[in-house]
Design a protein that fits this description.
16% strand; 373 residues; 16 strands; Aspartate Aminotransferase, domain 2; alpha/beta; 8-stranded mixed β-sheet
């Protein structure tokens, strides 16, 4: 019996009536862009976050781009982030003409190492994108303290929340602590659309208006354009309706994944597997369950072992961004922790729809591989 990494179809089937009803409602409205469904979802998500204003857009990548544009970041500006993240984080920086400045991650939490920020601050630094990796959060307030101590309170802090929707840091929702929060609704995310989708959370009205115009050609009103860098990045009404149907399930889905994570940690303890540690004060919203082995060869052997038993695994991410040809112009710091980690990590089957029996198969297979069955 095989185990899928994440059976999206099965998850959607579990709430098929809710999805179908929402989609049908949007279809029969005859209004498919920037309508009532989008407004309802934005209000619903803003309420769930507890602060800030949410604006839908085309994707998580666009959410980052719109945030950077709204912060007036462009050619030759420098934006600090990590190399150990999905490609879109760094691609968004390049898309606005800025220069990525890539720093290392913390050895235990695998999140941005806050102590490295001061070393790369320059007069050209205009933003920091903090990536809440795998569902764990960066200590955003510590990032703010570093830049303020350096006399750079003007630096925009942008949260990449693509993998951590529902997480909290000291009771503040991920995406509401920085100046902007960028969310992705890619189908496999904590809540996923049936296609692409994203959102920006803004924490002041001036930024709300900037993002609102930027996502719609820079228009303040129809046929009245005020921003030259405006684009077309709008969350369509059908996806918005589907996301509204899914949003009420987010809390329980995150709870289910927390239980799965705890069981993995408990029943795989004692094996040569390192789990990601949680940032102090963070209540994670796990997106992935990632473990690190002691050596790349051992990781590859475990993958082969799982493949023989039809257990699907993935690597998030096999090639760090500082080793991507497209980002050869990036400014890089010492990235020894990143380079050491990426060759040893493995993502285990993990989703709200993963059954106890399926998880038992994964756990027993891993223990057998290490001779601990």
């Amino acid at each position: 019996m095989g185990v899928p990494f994440f059976d999206i179809g099965r998850l959607n089937a579990s709430i098929a009536d809710d999805i179908a009803s929402a989609a049908q409602r949007a279809l029969t409205s005859s209004w498919y862009i920037l309508g009532k469904e989008g407004e309802a979802f934005e209000s619903q998500m803003s309420l769930q976050l507890g602060s800030g204003r949410v604006l839908g857009c085309n994707s998580g990548t666009d959410a980052l781009i719109l945030s950077l544009l709204a912060a007036d970041i462009g050619i030759e500006d420098e934006v600090i982030t990590v190399a150990h993240t999905a490609i879109p984080t760094v691609a968004a920086i390049c898309a606005v003409g800025a220069i990525p400045v890539l720093i290392d991650i913390d050895y235990d939490t695998w999140a941005l190492d806050v102590t490295k920020i001061a070393e790369v601050l320059t007069q050209k630094t205009k933003a920091i994108i903090v990536v809440h990796l795998y569902g764990n959060m960066v200590d955003v307030n510590s990032v703010r303290n570093v830049v303020c101590s350096a006399g750079r309170s003007d630096i925009a802090i942008i949260e990449d929340v693509a993998q951590a929707q529902g997480a909290e840091l000291n009771s503040q929702s991920a995406g509401t602590i920085g100046r902007f929060g960028a969310f992705s609704f890619y189908p496999s995310k904590n809540i996923g659309a049936l296609g692409d989708g994203g959102a920006v959370c803004c924490n002041n009205e001036a930024d709300v208006e900037q993002v609102r115009m930027l996502r719609n050609y820079g228009q303040k009103d129809r046929y009245h354009t005020e921003i030259s860098r405006g684009t077309n990045s709008r969350l369509d009404e059908i996806q918005a309706a589907i996301l509204s149907a899914k949003l009420p399930f987010l809390k329980n889905w995150n709870k289910r994944k927390a239980c799965l994570m705890e069981r993995y940690r408990t029943e795989l303890s004692g094996l040569p597997l390192k789990f990601q540690q949680v940032t102090s004060g963070c209540e994670p919203a796990w997106h992935l369950c990632v473990v690190a082995l002691d050596a790349p060869e051992r990781r590859d052997q475990l993958i082969a072992h799982f493949q023989r038993e039809e257990i699907q695994t993935l690597i998030h991410y096999p090639i760090p961004n500082h080793r991507q040809p497209a980002f050869a112009h990036a400014i890089i710091q010492d990235l020894s922790v990143t380079d050491s980690l990426v060759g040893r990590i493995l993502s285990l089957p993990f989703s709200p729809i993963l059954s106890d029996d399926e998880q038992t198969i994964v756990i027993n297979s891993a223990r057998a591989f290490f001779g601990a069955a």
